[in-house]
Amino acid sequence: MMKDSDLEPDSFIYEVLVRCFCNNLQLDSAVALINEMIESGMPPKHYVLVDIMNCFCELGKIKEAIVFLENRQVHETAPFNTLLEGCCNAGEILAANVLLETMSERHIADCESWNILIRWFCENEDIKKAHILLGRMIKSFVILDCATYSALVIGNCRLGKYEEAMKLFHQICARCWILDFASYSELVGGLCDIKHSEDAMEVFHYMSMKRCSLHSLAFYKLIKCVCDSGQVKEAIRLWQLACFCAISCCIATHTAIMQLLLRSRRAEDLLAFLSQMLMVGSNLDLEAYCILIQSMSRQNKIKECVLFFNTMINEGLTPDPDKLFDQLLFMANHSQLSMISSAID
User: Fold this and answer.
1) For position 338, what pLDDT does the model report?
2) Whose CA is closest to 52, among 76, 23, 72?
């Protein structure tokens, strides 16, 4: 291929071409270039082999990928780890187990290698097999890392074993580690589902101090738990921490806090929260507008009420007939007939 051209063989050019072929799933061409590199005395770097392993896996050629590595006597860990990921993603767990065993015998299996399989078993609710692998990992003198613990946390969560998950979390805290995004979200969301809001807040406070992000649904569940228990200050504080960690909040999260402030008759705090929301670029939905209008109506603040009503209508948002009737009635009682007319139109 390259030899047939006028170009002088160069490892960088080979690497770029291999990546290009792999990105376009042209496996045969990529393999041919790899063979040329080896023949030219330029053995491919580990990242080139990672690219070609990804190509094999995307095409579902797991067995061919194993043969490829064997025939070329590859001893780098990264390509094997990529293939392990591919085996797991394809559900080829027997092949993954055999591959990991081979890597372990050759002393090229690292912590990530073990974590890949442990994670798969945990995500598929087979914690027993994950523990067996964990035992083999320890016997191989491989040191567990935060990814190992994160995998075990997610495995226990999916089996509803939240006490075990919290024990693992406390071990993570003792080592000053952090959970990964998926495990963190699963733990917080699961704890909220079983109404263990104090544990969920403990996890959130620790992780937010490390500026870790959280899935928006898990954070909504946490805010909902706090709001349902009437903890106004805590709900706002958690939301502020979420902003600090750049956690994306869904509209339902903001609405839950606004409903709590409305129930608590804290109009000033409601407006202050609204201003903070707008500062971070959050939008209002229909329910949020209705909460604001209801709050202004209770305080007889007709100007603010009309302002929010007008903005709501201009954005094409219309409440259900009962809420609309209450809003129009309030404005009618305060001689806002022009606003009523525009709303009807």
Assistant:
1) 53
2) 23
In degrees, rounded to 5, the angle at the alpha carbon of residue 87 between the alpha carbons of residues 83 and 88 is 120
High-pLDDT (> 90) share of the chain, %: 70
DSSP symbol at 271: H
Measured CA to CA, the distance from residue 290 to residue 268 in angstroms comes to 16
In degrees, rounded to 5, the angle at the alpha carbon of residue 311 between the alpha carbons of residues 308 and 314 is: 150
285-290: long-range contacts at Cβ-Cβ below 8 A with a sequence spacing of 24 or more?
A: 285/251, 285/255, 285/317, 286/312, 286/317, 286/318, 286/319, 287/255, 288/251, 288/254, 288/255, 288/258, 289/317, 289/319, 290/319, 290/323, 290/327
Q: For 120-162, what is each residue's pLDDT tens digit?
A: 999 999 999 999 999 999 999 999 999 999 999 999 999 999 9
DSSP class of residue 26 equals -
- Report how far residue 225's alpha carbon sits from residue 235's, in angstroms, rounded to the nearest whole number: 9
Look up residue 22 and give its two tokens.
């792999």
- Domains of the chain from N-terminus onward: 1-108 (1.25.40.10), 110-172 (no CATH)
pTM of the predicted protein model: 0.86
* Amino acid letter, 15: E
